[in-house]
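Deadline looming. Please check this record:
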Amino acid sequence: MIKSIYISLFLLLLGSNLSFSQTELGKDLVALDTISKSQINPLAPAKAAFYSAVLPGLGQAYNKKYWKIPIVYGAMGTSIYFYISNNKKYHQYRDAYKSRLEGYTGDEFSYLDDSRLIAAQKFYQRNRDLSMLITGLFYILNIVDANVDAHLMQFNVNEKLTVKPDIYRNDFTSRQNLGISVTLKL
């Protein structure tokens, strides 16, 4: 009897604690950068990726990289155009081959024999499938680009640390050498 009272008291306290734990979840996740004292939103990359997944190019707009939106739509639109074009040709050759099997010979591809019709079907089917795969890859690349760009927007870039190529003279051989200059200003 006493165990059941303790268990029910424990569950009551645990349940009341859980009900108050989800009041303001997003406000605790904002951190300050230790160098520049600016706010960093750790959910921004996930939000940008989600927006790009819902509507391609929306993540780039969320990141304020508006110049990337025509590139996203141009790449996806081109691959979708080739998908539609290859699908149309595939169905034309397939329908011509089906009508040949039924005995009709007066189609637009009467100059081709059956083996050429089958080869054309396979060619356009392969190109159609490849176009769909490329469309999917551009879609995934759009999401990855929005995510990485949102991550890099929070990256600390200032003039205190510079890395640049440097050409210097070797005193021993009197020749020009190529190197990398790393400078840290405090």
